[in-house]
Write a structure and sequence with these properties.
Layout: E1 4-7, H1 19-24, E2 33-36, H2 39-49, E3 56-58, E4 81-86, H3 95-108, E5 112-117, H4 126-130, E6 135-138, H5 144-151, E7 156-159, H6 168-175, E8 180-182, H7 188-191, E9 198-200, H8 206-217, H9 220-236, H10 240-257
Parallel strand pairs: 1-2, 2-3, 4-5, 4-7, 5-6, 7-8, 8-9
Helix pairs in contact: 3-8, 6-9
Amino acid sequence: AVLLNTVHDAVLHPGEQGGLKSWFYQPFRPAHAYIALSNYVAQQLCDVYAIAPDRVSVIPLGPLSDPVTRVPDGPSRTGPLRLLFFGRILRYKGLERLIEAYGMLRAEGQQISLQITGSGDLGDVIAAVTALADITVDNKWVPEDEMEGVFSQADVIILPYLESSQSGVIASAFATGVPAIGTPIGGLPEQITHGVNGLLTADTSPAALACEIRKLAGDGALLAKLREGALRTAQQQFSWDKISDEILILSRNCLNRVGR
């Protein structure tokens, strides 16, 4: 038999230490090959666990639903740019920096709104959230079959992360024609191509986040371009047909190596 080990995170994210997850993140069981979901994680596997590079293949994570057939209509130019923060709320996700950036932009008079959807502790940010207009919060875990509906209400998803291996949220957002603004951290630059399917910030500061959001809020043509690029990326780079083919090729190569 051949064992392929698919690795989402090579090391724990900040704030995930302790309990069952810490036990799980022991040195990985020896496998014939490892599938990393980004080059960033592949390098961590080699560096942290001394796995030979030729045993690690990079195959990206696909979306949770099939890509839509066309890009949905964008926002009215008279309406706000709808920002979405989606996913688990943990320290490394940088939500407090997004809220600070949002406050800066609202003070400028930018026409934007923010939806925060995900499970986690909002204690550190709830005061800032309630002090700002047009922020809505849905503090719960969202089932997979409801995610597309959440994304469909957004114009751009924001990933203000301070650390990241890669993001399954990006792949699923792209499949609905929603581009991303993310920080240049970990594997995010492998998924977000600046000016093609989203925008990458200069750094992780609130000012850098505000800069890229400001660009999109004031440029409807750019938003339309990024929406097209996001869907195209989902249909091509994150296609499950392509991913399946790559896994089959890797599996056959492993079988050949062990003489099956």
